[in-house]
Amino acid sequence: MGTPTRDEECPIRRPGLASVFGPILIALLLLLALLGGGLACADQQRPAASTDRAADGPEGYPRLSVDVVRVVDGDTILVRLPNGATERVRYIGIDTPESVRPEQPVEPYGPEAANRNRELLRNAEVELEFDVQERDRYGRLLAYVFADGTFVNRRLVEEGLALAITYAPNVRNQQKLLDAQRRARREALGIWSPG
User: Fold this and answer.
1) For the chain, what is the domain count?
2) Model confidence pLDDT, tens digit, residues 76-110
3) Which listed residue, of 3, 126, 140, 176, carries a Cα 20 to 30 Å from 149's Cα?
4) CA-CA distance, 128 to 4, in Å (whole number)?
């Protein structure tokens, strides 16, 4: 078999651009989709300028000092940022039973979670710490909340008043929250108590 002439069809085909760059393009799009949740759109206001941030927390992540305007429920608060803006903040990594949603009944331990959240934040210096994704699909800020240095998200899970939940890409404290949940469950606290 010799070299094919122009009139013969060559059995070996060179890959086209689509077959070479297609997998690369797909990988790049997937990477952008994974990282995209943490990128702010140009028209979205960032919660605060870097000069408004508090000192870094013990693990080196920057924290933002805020004033609590109102505790909405066990995992949501309304805060005033240093720039004067008011924002609704949803706690990262936890979910508490419902206590205020009009279309849902009050769930067991919902009022207890909201009251405990209120107690932890009352008269405390409150700081927010952000993860990869800054806002959820409802436009709420997503944060880990600290009151006088206490990691409130974890405390609510430790006391059996919240479930540890994970929504990528915000997973930095996932292991701490899951460990706290295992302890609460083992000790049958709050939502883990029998009956």
Assistant:
1) 1
2) 999 999 999 999 999 999 999 998 887 888 899 99
3) 140
4) 70
